[in-house]
């Protein structure tokens, strides 16, 4: 006896709504049912392949764990560090090793285990050095051609030490100098650029005047093919403060 009920369901393969005659029907058609079955079978095969790859990849590590003597390269793989770190452990006396011949250093597995029996020595935290040199906000504006609002954002975003003395904002000189040196040399964060021709058209100045401002004020630039691109924000800031 066939079912007489009709319910609306969502096909679990194509996502379309369809009318089903049972409350457990999963697919809208035989085609979707077959495709879902093949996709599931394919997924099982892919997962099996991944597990096999994982087993093969970890197999060499299992071999290393049972070896009594290891090379520096094998030690680095076993404990998950670089060869240079292993040599540093050996040279510092923390890890015992022997040279069987030139360029052949061998480490016993038991000595590696003994390495982890040593107590952990916590490196003392360096106390921050007190700041002794400061800029006034006006000095920073004049030196780096940046407006006060922009300067205030730089201080906040980079946690640059500051204080107030006699009603004047004083900002750490070494921190500010380091910030502008890094940002003016690093162009990876700059997304907006002018070509020389675009600057000429916008500000009605010559190429020599453009390059003079770029070099005098260390404005970020880069060469893209045959064109020189100049940081839009840095160049515009010069004109905003009247340079």
TrEMBL record:
One term of GO molecular function: DNA binding
Assigned keywords, A-Z: DNA-binding
Pfam family membership, one: HTH_17
Highest taxon in the source lineage: Bacteria
Domain Helix-turn-helix: 69-117
UniProt keyword DNA-binding, yes or no: yes
Protein name as catalogued: DNA-binding protein
């Amino acid at each position: 006896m066939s079912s007489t009920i009709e319910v609306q369901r969502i096909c679990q393969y194509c996502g379309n709504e369809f009318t089903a005659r049972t409350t457990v029907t999963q697919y809208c058609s035989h085609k979707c049912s077959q495709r879902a079955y093949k996709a599931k079978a394919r997924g099982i095969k892919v997962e099996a392949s991944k597990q096999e790859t994982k087993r093969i990849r970890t197999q060499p590590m299992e071999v290393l764990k049972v070896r009594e003597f290891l090379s520096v390269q094998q030690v680095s793989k076993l404990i998950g560090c670089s060869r240079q770190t292993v040599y540093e452990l050996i040279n510092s006396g923390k890890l015992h090793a022997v040279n069987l011949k030139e360029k052949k250093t061998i480490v016993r597995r038991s000595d590696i285990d003994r390495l982890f029996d040593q107590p952990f020595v916590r490196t003392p935290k360096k106390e921050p050095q007190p700041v002794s040199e400061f800029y006034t906000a006006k000095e920073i504006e004049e030196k780096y051609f940046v407006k006060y609002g922009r300067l205030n954002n730089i201080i906040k975003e980079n946690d640059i030490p500051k204080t107030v003395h006699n009603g004047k904002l004083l900002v750490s000189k070494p921190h500010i100098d380091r910030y502008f040196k890094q940002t003016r040399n690093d162009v990876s964060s700059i997304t907006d650029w002018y070509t020389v021709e675009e600057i000429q058209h916008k500000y009605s100045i010559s190429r020599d005047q453009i390059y003079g401002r770029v070099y005098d004020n260390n404005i970020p630039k880069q060469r893209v093919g045959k064109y020189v691109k100049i940081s839009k924000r840095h160049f515009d800031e010069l004109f905003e403060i009247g340079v």
